[in-house]
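tool=predict chain=A
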Amino acid sequence: MNNYNERILVVEDDCQIRNFIKYIIEKEGYKLFNACNGESALSIIVSEKNRFNYIRFRTT
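tool=predict ok
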């Protein structure tokens, strides 16, 4: 397991995909934040003061 300082926000409305992405990313040692919709994502971004290295946003 790597010890990265990168912070990743994943916005995905499909719970199974979100959990799979979480499993892969955390296994590699990244700090992951998950949101199921845009409103949740914005709340996380504000509370974390936009300190993300990467944001993946996908909803249907």
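The first strand starts at residue 7 and ends at 12. DSSP finds two helices and three strands in the chain.
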